[in-house]
Amino acid sequence: MVNASEVIEGRLRSDGCEVIKEEVDGETITLGYTSEWRWLCRVHVLVAVVNRAVATEEDVQGFTLEVLMVADSMGLRNGLQSGVLVMPILVAPVIGEEIPGMMSRSFRLGTSGFAAMAQPAVVDAGSGRVYTFRGRRLLGVAFVKLIHEKIETYLAGHAEGRTS
User: What is residue 87's three-state secondary structure?
Assistant: First the structure.
């Protein structure tokens, strides 16, 4: 069986990301960082991949906020012409029944802060199916193309049947 986390890590490296592994509360988190210029703004992209036994809506929300805090600790939300895209990816063999519905809408951080967007994803470790939002956004519309490019780069091909 293909290890989805290892595949994603390889894709991060191929995309030119700086990749490190961090131990947090007994679990290994793979972090990938890169930045790109879009629309006269520097967009910092921070991808975090973790393996979990189960992925629920609460797990997605909690891990997304953890990744945002990592971005803050790296100083990525500083500067007038910069923004942050955090992409927390949970890989789990058991997916909560609420995950498909949750991923059918854009994720709202619900925190104050400037120029931060989140694009969480859940990968079913058994089937390889990817659950993430692929629709249009009202906020951050200028970066939709970048978000879709990163989804394709890091997550495409885990399974033929994709889920929005």
Answer: strand
Tokens found for residue 41: 């703004």
Please check the confidence at residue 79 and state whether its pLDDT lies above 90.
no
CA distance linking residue 110 with residue 126, whole number of Å: 31
Question: Do residues 98 and 85 touch, judged by C-beta distance below 8 A?
Answer: no
Q: If you compute the radius of gyration of the chain from its CA atoms, what whole number of angstroms results?
A: 15
Into how many domains does the chain fold?
A: 1
| Selection from 8-17, 70-79, 99-108, 110-119 with the highest mean pLDDT | 8-17
User: Which pLDDT band, with edges at 50, 70 and 90, does 148 fall under?
Assistant: confident
Residue 131 placed within a domain: yes
Does 163 fall in a domain?
A: no
Q: Which DSSP letter does residue 135 get?
A: S
Distance of alpha carbon 36 from alpha carbon 146, whole angstroms: 9
Q: Structure tokens of 27?
A: 């679990």
Quick check: is 160 in a domain?
no
Alpha helices in the chain (DSSP H): 4-14, 57-73, 99-102, 144-155
